[in-house]
Amino acid sequence: MDNKQASAAETLDVGAIQPLAGDCAQWGIPIVRGMQYWADQLNADGGLLAGDGKRYKINLKTYDNVCYIPGEELKAGRKAILDDNIKFMLQTFTPGSRQAIAQMTTDNHVLTTSYGAGYLSKDHPYLNGGITGSPAAYMLIASRAIDANPDVKRVAIITSDQSFGLAAKAYFEAGVAAHPEVEIVYNESYAPDATKDMLGLLTPLMASKPDMVCQLGWVPAQYASAIETMEQMGFKGVHCAEGFTFPMILERVPAEQLAGRTYFGYAFEASEPTFSAKGHELYKWYVEEYGVEEWSPYTPIGYASMMTLEAGIRMSPSIDSKVVMETLYAADVVDHPLFGPSKWGGEEIYGANHHLLTPLPIYNLDADGNVVLDHVVDHAAWWEKHKDVALPRIDAGGQVFR
Predict the structure, then answer these.
(1) Per-residue model confidence as pLDDT tens digits over 280-296
(2) What mean pLDDT do residues 180-190 have?
(3) Terminus of the chain with fewer CB atoms < 10 Å: N or C?
(4) What is the pTM of this model?
């Protein structure tokens, strides 16, 4: 009997908690679209072939957390877990939001991944970090940008005062700490309302005369405005972030002006074809479905993160979420469908090795407006080399949870 036909009747509900309306939907909607592509690809193949020999059609259900607000995360989690009986789920890395539903995922055996770690705990084993992702990526991006630009000696860090921004602040600091010759000359957090006056927000930052600016907190439209403002104020240095929504940015600043100056990496950048041919298919689908002007660097992160759960379900002898969790953590190496063999880590930060340390491709922009692969960072190797200086900065920022 054809294995694709043998057991395609069963359905597996998968949840996604993301902002689905308002400004933060500029993050959430692309993430959900990437997850839907992941589900559609598996379903087109007859469903996800699990380790129990059955195929499962993926049914994606979405839940709104407004803007990664812990209280809203809790409301969304209750609906997903208590009302809809979701057992496999993706949520934000935002530490406060992860903590908000941690006990609920534990009590109800809901295997919950994310595009990074943020908050993990041995007491809440159903939470994992599905890829290197955030906030660890901020550390690796900042370090790589400094390595690639020896003239960078002065770094400015600007992040929102929300939970995800405070996590980014600590990890940017950790990345810079690996380079004792570099000084942090500006390091401030801002309230969301401050973005209404971008010139006022950026004036003290620019007064610090940085060679590199690292940020997290601006939604894509705000970041495009911020880059335009900094360029108008004479900034000629390096921009460092988790991602750049270039269709918005290049309407304001020409590509040749930014070429070689924008370092970023979250999961992988699907518009760049050389890192992953499989991942590049996501970009081609997205552009055909929504248009090139709608492309977002956030689309690949949900797609890549769900592949960690996919790998666990394929290995597990049962679709039961507890068995899948135990199977994943028992694996010395997880063969991630996109990143390849990756090991678990995170014990020094979270008290448990529940963060999958996938390679982190880092990208830049060329003068023609194309995203190009700059470097691939081995997360585990970087951490082993620099953890003695990086960990104290993460701890000082309140991001150690062991």
Answers:
(1) 999 999 999 999 999 99
(2) 98
(3) N
(4) 0.93
What is the homologous superfamily of the domain 3-133+276-360 according to CATH?
Response regulator (3.40.50.2300)
The domain ranges of the chain are 3-133+276-360, 135-266+362-396
The answer to whether 278 touches 338, Cβ cutoff 8 Å, is: yes
Is residue 203 scored above 90 in pLDDT? yes
Q: Say which CATH topology domain 135-266+362-396 has.
A: Rossmann fold (3.40.50)
Query: Which tokens sit at 398?
Result: 């309140």
* Banded model confidence at residue 25, pLDDT cuts 50, 70, 90: very high
pLDDT, averaged across the chain: 96
pLDDT at 9 (0 to 100): 64
| 358-375 mean pLDDT | 98
Tokens 């390096």 -> residue: 238
Residues 297 and 299: their CA atoms lie apart, in Å, by 6
Take residue 220 and report the two structure tokens written for it.
Answer: 């894509």
Tell me: the pLDDT tens digits for 80-121?
A: 999 999 999 999 999 999 999 999 999 999 999 999 999 999
241 - beta bridge partners?
264
Taking residue 200's Cβ as centre, other Cβ atoms within 10 Å add up to 9
Q: How far apart are CA 172 and CA 310, in angstroms?
A: 30
Query: 292: number of CA atoms within 13 Å, CB side?
Result: 6
